[in-house]
Each structure stands twice: as structure tokens, then as C-alpha cells.
Amino acid sequence: MGSLIIVLPIVSVLVGLYFITLGLWELRKGVNRKQYIKYMFTGLFLLVVLTPMIWLFGSSSLMKMG
To answer: Transmembrane stretches, by residue range (predicted)?
Structure first.
């Protein structure tokens, strides 16, 4: 369980960066602006909101276990 708490935020950051890269690529092509917005907000949500929440709740659950 402890290793999952370490791996999950790293995966979240990598997927968030992937979505941001897809959004920038979509903006570069300039075809679908709605798709750009979806990719960017999904990536930013994963980076800015979900990753710190996983670290915060993960560290608190580790303290309860130990």
C-alpha cells in the first residue's frame, strides 16, 4: 500500500503533462479549440489539484497505519 501512495502521484503528474502536451499540440494545429480546452483543463486539474490531494491524503493514511 505504501508504494502505491508513492507511484500514484507520479503517474498523475505524467498523465497531466501528457494532456497538457496534447492540448498545446491541438492549439498548434488550430483545428479544434474545444479539444484544446478539454486537454488543458484535464492536465492542469491532474497537476494542480489531484496530485497534491493524493500526497496529502496518502501521507495522512500512512500515519494512521504506522
So the answer is: 6-27, 39-58
